[in-house]
Amino acid sequence: MPEAPEVFCVLQDLKPRLEGRQIQKVSITHPKLTANLPCEQFEADLTGQHFRDFHRLGKYMVFELDDFDLVVHMRMEGKFFVLDRQAFEALDPIKDRKHIHAIFLLDDGRILCYRDTRKFGRMHLYKKQEDWRALPVFDKIGKDALDPLLCAKELYEKTRRRKAPLKNVLLDQSVIAGIGNIYADEILYAAHLSPKTIASHLDLDDWQRILDATRAILNESISCKGTTIRTFSYGGSHAGSYQDQLKIHGKEGRCERCENEIVHETVGQRSTWYCPSCQKEK
DNA sequence: CCTTAGACCTGGAGGC
DNA sequence: TGCCTCCAGGTCTAAG
Which residue places its CA closest to the C1' of nucleotide B12? Predict the structure, then answer.
């Protein structure tokens, strides 16, 4: 489901609801959700902790607590929402509760719920350390796509020996963190580059165009509260609107720039839309 | 080091 | 209505 802009919006929604709140009780009902510790350990460690700070790296969220860092990746379908007790108890056990795999009872009486239909999402819990960016889960994660310190030169140098299609490399979170299948298509369209271009064929200017396009598109999406194509929502039921700004991903018919036919095919095992006429293969 | 299947999960959509 | 296949915004692994 979510790419960087959607994760940003989820975090933005959660922050005012969670900041300063104490966790009174935790219940985790899907054993695989907790990636680095048993559920029971999570439940015990989280109990009594307060939400202190909130961070994002790529598609990961970091909840800084008193003594721990809770790291969450929602993968395809994970969702967070906060309900008051009445609304929580009104949930239909089959329809609404079936895929809720974690609940956090807060000290204001409300309940933070995590729902994940496909059970791909994962949570990691670590003893707090000076710099959350140094947590093991981030060992192979590159700079965030919106990190001001990220520069075209770094991307260029990291991809000198990559023979894979450019699209795959944009999706590689160790190169640049936060881009997923939708924004990869949009970024490549904006940069006039074919998703099938061999990544090592790009020069520094190409990477600068990619980086500029990435920043423009992700920021614009954030201002639209993200993209809602299938099931993305934040705060329970709010939808983003960037889907209305998409230029190429999921489009049929003619390219709005050059009037030629848009192509939809699989590139690097992912569904890909592009315009072969104005997205050059280098 | 790099690349490519396959696996992990469930439900919705469309064809018959 | 039911069954079947394909598809989905992600990432890990095993193997070449």
Answer: A230
